[in-house]
Amino acid sequence: MLSAGLTRVRPFVAAGNHGNVQHYYSRHTSGSGRSVQCSAEATMQQAFTIIGGGRVGQALADMGPGTDVIVRRGQPISGPPGPILVATRNDALDGIVDATPADRREDLVFLQNGMLQPWLDSRGLGDNTQVLVYFAVAKLGEKPTDGKTDVNPEGLTAAYGRHAEAVAARLAAGGLSCKVLARPAFTRAMLEKLVWISAFMLVGAKHKVTVGEVESQHTQEVSELIEELAAAGADALGVQLDSGVVERLNAYARSVAHFPTAVKEFEWRNGYFYGLTQQALQQGRPDPCPKHTAMLKEVKAI
Q1: Contact, 210 vs 257, CB < 8 A?
Q2: Mean pLDDT score of the chain, rounded to an integer?
């Protein structure tokens, strides 16, 4: 899925005298129309600060020049100029922002799942870089698997914000795709990721099955839920999703079929859609997500 004004993230391989390999990505900004082209090899020389030494944080460091600063729980948040990648659970975010020096908070890069924008706005970080992660790291130290699908072979990982290009270049250096998007396109992509994790985790929790089993054994149920949540979210955010949402999200499920399912981090995920339900009912309007609400009650999430 490509949005207007964006060129596909593409690997361009150039072997130099010493066999060095370079990956390039490009984008067009909607404002200036200029083409931005960067070498991932050059960007690899830039050290990042990475908060969180788990599977994702370590994988990101392994793609870099070896000079990243990894900040673990309880350590002061300091490091080289440039991106500060936050690779932690959502419940740690407030503490991380509080512990980050005020003059470095605009460098924070958020990789978490869920609806982050209201929280970012409340912390004065509404324009910070965000990354929609569609790659998986099975075990600490293992190479990530890109979330490419039979519908989106170019990959689905996307980034927005001042450090988006640096993050995309770092991922490209690790063999992973990443699209750099302007805000409107990123909002649409973010909603699709939110719909995916909310729908598949909920249907999976109901039937106690994996993501792949949801897609293969409960296709109609999850597809109807996807359509319901996508419509409600698009209306609330004032965006229009590209056609084929159900096909794209089911395809991604097939690519991560082994993932377990559970309803968790409720306020960041399913809680967003339940909030739309509560708002509508309080205003005397019909529930925009009746299937979602009924299923939340069935799994005792509400």
Answers
A1: yes
A2: 87
